[in-house]
Amino acid sequence: MGPRRTYQIASSQLTIDFGSVLDVEAEAVVSSDDYLLTMGGGVSAAIRSAGGNAVVLDASKAVPREAGDVVVTTAGALSARYVFHAVTIGPDYWEDRDRSADVMGLVQRATRTCLELMQPLGVSSIAFPALGTGTAGYPIEASAAAMAEVIYDVLRRSNWRFVVSIMLMSPSLGEPMQYVAFYEEFARRVPAVAAGQVVPSPAPASQPQPAVSELVTLEGQRQRIEQELVDIYQEQGRDGAARESELRAELQQNTDERLRVAQRARRNRQKAAAVFVSYARDDKALCDKLSDHLGGLRTGGYISVWSDGEIVPGQEWAPEITRHLDEADIVLLLVTSSFLGSEFIGRVELARALERHRRGDAIVIPVILRPADWQSAGLGGLQALPRDSKAVSTWADQDTAFLDIVQGLHRTVDMWRARQVPVASAGPS
Predict the structure, then answer these.
(1) How far apart are CA 380 and CA 155, in angstroms?
(2) DSSP letter string over 408-421?
(3) Which of 174, 198, 222 lies at the terminal end of a domain, its last residue?
(4) N or C terminus: which one in the chain shows less Cβ crowding within 10 Å?
């Protein structure tokens, strides 16, 4: 089972998953903000980047605010209708030595306000982050406990059908293993939620299990073993000693396995995604411009980039292209009429990339540089960049188009890293 947990509460649905609020098709996204709504860090910065300055300008009309307040603004360029700005950093945050003193109350108030705003605004779907656990630095368990109690209380009492998602951060912002605590605390606070879990169909056995999911499973096993040990101590039966020995061996094995999974996840979180760039020679100028814009992701260790420009004199170009294409985690197809008209690209690079994509060995992203009939080339089912598949050459400001591509690729790398595929694997599942 993956890290996603879905629950049925009355007529509503709650999902807890690992990723960004921007990954969810929701009518409202929740931003965790400071009292001036600057949207300067963490989830709020990602929303600002994707939604544009219209979100910040709208928010600036409603400041300053107090911790726990919620401000509703436009969603700008986002597909959502609204951004709900939950204030988790108040005016006294930096002077308060005990910053977590009223985390429960603050997060409960903000969560309840967001939910209560939905029906008057005609909104049925909403995506929350783990409120306050980013820049504000609140304890993950406290956020989980507060959100669990409020969400369960509102959903079970209301006749409105809510579709609520809680997205546990982007892996580029911190250790995903920390967020296992959110799952466990959420279920512990509201056992009735766990009882209503909708169990998804198991993934095919050939797919590696994501590290977050494994850690959640192992944590549940650990709690079960420890509870059985407590029961043995209380009952003190004749067979207790033998069973206790078995359980202690299981507990040690569980500890060793959790350490192994955590170490593997750390290695994969730090691994740069291998990006293969497929392009036509006529488009080299635009390819070079994209390469310049990818500099931040390269410098930050998110990606390593290869194109046939890396082939040195004396190397056989066809085997080198095939080798790097087979090793790629992500393939960028720089689409133009020249790209689609290239016999070699169509026969070798495009065919091989789509084959690896269908097998789940690589992620293929068409990047539309110039207007072309790319859908007829078998790419119509793939999500393209930039936004709305609008060709770069048609943008009034091409730098903005390239920035949109970089941000989209960044989100894809985050998703790829979250899957935590073992290093020896050929690519993301």
Answers:
(1) 39
(2) HHHHHHHHHHHT--
(3) 198
(4) N
Q: Are residues 188 and 126 in the same domain?
A: yes
Whole-number Å distance between alpha carbons of 168 and 23:
11
184 within 8 A of 145, measured Cβ to Cβ: no
For the CA atoms of the chain, what is the radius of gyration?
Answer: 24
Is the overall model pTM greater than 0.90, yes or no?
no
Tell me the range of 107-116, 254-263, 414-423 where mean pLDDT is highest.
107-116
Q: Locate 412 and state its tokens.
A: 């894809």
CATH of the domain at 397: 3.40.50.10140
Amino acid at 57: L
Extract the tokens encoding 402.
Answer: 């390239």
Cα gap 283→343, rounded to integer Å: 15
In terms of domains, do 37 and 105 share one? yes
Shared-domain flag, residues 310 and 349: yes
Is residue 149 located within the same domain as residue 185? yes
Same domain, 99 and 135: yes
429 belongs to a structural domain:
no
Q: What does residue 257 show for φ and ψ, rounded to 5 degrees?
A: -70, -40
DSSP per residue, 161-184: --EEEEE---GGGS-GGGGHHHHH
Q: Please state the φ and ψ torsions of residue 97, each to the nearest 5 degrees.
A: -70, -30
Give the CATH number, domain containing residue 152: 3.40.220.10
Rounded-to-integer distance, Cα 143 and Cα 149, Å: 10
The torsion region of residue 140 among left (phi > 0), alpha (psi -120 to 50) and beta comes to alpha
How is residue 329 written in tokens? 């985690």
8 Å CB contact between 16 and 186: yes
- By three-state DSSP, how is residue 265 classified? helix
**Residue 39, CA distances (Å) to 17, 56, 57, 77, 409 in order:** 23, 7, 11, 15, 21
Gap between the Cα atoms of 252 and 194, Å rounded: 27
Question: What total number of domains does the chain contain?
Answer: 3
Name the phi and psi angles at 267, rounded to 5.
Answer: -60, -45
- Is residue 394 domain-resident? yes
Q: For residues 104, 179, 168 and 218, what is the CA-based torsion angle, rounded to 10 degrees?
A: -120
Instruction: Tell me: pLDDT of 100 over 70.
Output: no
Confidence of residue 278 (pLDDT cuts 50, 70, 90): very high
Distance CA 93, CA 285 (A): 49
In eight-state DSSP terms, residue 342 is -
Please state, for a pLDDT cut of 70, what percent of the chain lies above it.
78
Q: For residues 188 and 243, state if they share a domain.
A: no
CB 412 within 8 A of CB 388: no
